[in-house]
Amino acid sequence: MLPDNDLDAAREGAPTFYDEMFERGGACRPQYRAIYERIDQMSAEELHRRQQAADLSFLHQGITFTVYGRDEGTERIFPYDLLPRIITGPEWATVERGLAQRITALNLFLKDIYHEGRILADKVVPAELVYTCRHFRREMRGVRVPRDIYVSVVGTDLVRLEDGRFVVLEDNLRVPSGVSYMLANRQVMKRVFPRLFGNYGVRPIDHYGQALLATLRALAPASRPEPTIVLLTPGVYNSAYFEHAFLARQMGVELVEGRDLLAHDNVVYMRTTAGLRRVDVIYRRLDDDFLDPLAFRPDTSLGVAGLFNAYRAGNVALANAIGTGVADDKALYAYVPAIIRYYLSEDPVLENVETYLLTDDAQRRHVSDNLDKLVVKAVGESGGYGMLIGPHSTADEREEFRRRIEAEPRNYIAQPTLALSQAPCLIEGNVEARHVDLRPYILCGEQITIVPGGLTRVALRRGSLVVNSSQGGGSKDTWVLYE
Amino acid sequence: MLSRVADSLYWMSRYLERAEHTARLVDVGLNLMLDQSPDSAERRWGRLLTSLQAPPQLAGLSDPQRITQAMTFEMENSTSIVACIAAARENLRQVREQISSEMWEQLNRLFIHVKGAKLDDIWHVSTHEFFRSVKEGAHLFQGITDSTMNHGEGWLFIQVGRYIERAGATATLLDVYAAESLDPKAPAAGPGSYLDWVGLLKACTAFEAYCKVYTADLRPERIAEFLLLNAECPRSVRFAADRIQSAFQAISAEAGARKSVRVNRLAGRLRAALGFGQIDEIMEAGLRAYLDDIRGQCAQIHAAIQQTYVAYPVDAALAS
Fold first, then answer.
1. Is pLDDT of B29 > 70?
2. Is B258 left (phi over 0), alpha (psi -120 to 50) or beta?
3. Edge-to-edge, what's the strand order for the sheet holding A267-272?
4. B interface mutation test: which of A61, A273, A301, A302 has the most B CBs within 10 A?
5. Please, which pLDDT band fits residue A427 given cuts at 50, 70 and 90?
6. How many CB pairs (< 8 A) connect A and B?
7. SS3 of A470, please?
């Protein structure tokens, strides 16, 4: 029997955070009640045993990520927390609507800026912001992409504010990762808590692989009714290699490296033992820079020489398209609500986090004066790198960032320090509250598909607000309920 | 199947076979050392180094400890056991999603075992135990492969790699002995040379099998016949050629018959040469020339695999 106060300890924590399990008064939210009771009945050993069973299951399935910079034995499991995070049916309906709206608008935006540029001419988004973005690809001007879909696979980071609203923290429109952990977490959860799970009314997510395949198939050239689809990986040394192999297996497509492919007369082929086989759609898990040494960075052998010309000729489709990074630039992010209003004439369902643009003099002054309360992010970085978290920073660090901002204001944005919601986690046998975010995955092909769920990332260090796996984060299963 | 995957599986298998062969030869060499006269030592170690195609800087060595160290634990020596296992593991690592996880675990375990061992640890205890564990590790991997992996194209490339390597290794080993012992100017047969022949058969785990067929009467031409032409001895060249040919037939059925004509013809020719060869005729015409020819054919098959399945020219593939 777990001492009562252990669970009650999770009730405390700063009152300014939204708690996923407990209401402000300390009562358990209805959707968590069955779990609360179940865990309350379990002994510490029982919980520990199940956590171990889960960890072993990950290890045996080889669900690992690579840690850079060491020679051998560089694979670790991604820390997994046993207690699920629950989202109710109505909450999810809002999230789903908001995500679909956002991705629709962003696809229209990408099409626009790579063709007519209406939104720039109308001065809704400053043209210089787009053209100074490191991820803007001049080469894509005037290139038609299949179905005008630039972004087929999105992972959007959401956080929940004090009042319980979900807001968008970041759009990942290039090569978002982590979906394999979402799927693996669920498999392990079903194994470890079969009855609890079975009685809860959780919506399934296992069809993700199939939905991804359908999304990719929708991009194939019309002349290819039985398209060959491949997943292009940078190779075994990439930290997300497990995910690449996992998704290829889930979809039943070939996992290829750049050296397996070649472009000839604007057609892409893969080398098989039965000869060259034409490739129609490439789900690439490689950044734009590395795709084609003839078109982009010449000093790489990860890509395929001539791929870009084949792409421009319409003989092969890429998911995601080249040049989508311009729309997830952190400075452009501030304009996404305006982009939604411009193309769809609707108000955004999911709001943004308030963002200060440092190219604006007044905003920059405000940020410079309040650095100790704000979070500053480099616009081109991801993975929790290049960040200043004001309240946790030293005066020297703040001075350093102040200098960097003055030198390159376009390279940084600032946001208020967010009160990420917290959820109960199993930490060394005790239940404690930790901050979480949510990354749902959106697929955009013939239609928009959002599997009900996502990756809930956890900042496992007490008080930490950084959930990235490279910075000591873990994850938990995310249950979206029917009701 | 992707050409790169086929190539990795093929090389993985060759490297592992080579590691096992080296382990057996060094083990037998150390065992023979117990019964040797000073002048035979140099000859025996010389034979071992030649037949394993050891790097030239090792030539002329006859210090067993130095040789064991170099051929077992030196990563810089690409013919050493640890280097071969590391190369096999690296190849397998590139195609992990194509094989069973049991296969990966076993090869990884073998690698960790060999990499972690040191000469000092095994020299004064039992070298034999150590080499046996290496051989067993390789055998276990083969058993796991056969019972956990689909016997499809990938598995067939593993077979091809193993038997190409084995055919070449047995032929090379026989050639080294032939060069010396079938030479009319070689020292007359004696108790010393009897041990050498036993060593050769043991290096092919064929001593007991030979005795069952021919009794313990060891005669060079019979030994040559056994290691070359016997259809049942798993380390004979003939046995390997049989397996190579049937694997290629199955591969061309899976991968489509496109241009596999040449590979199949080469494999069939090798098999026929060994299947219908007569040892007296071979001896008369010169065993060494014959072995040279066999090794040449193995090299041709290897080149044809690359040309047909892996590094084929794009123009030719587009034309078909």
1. yes
2. beta
3. A261-264, A267-272, A275-278
4. A273
5. confident
6. 54
7. helix
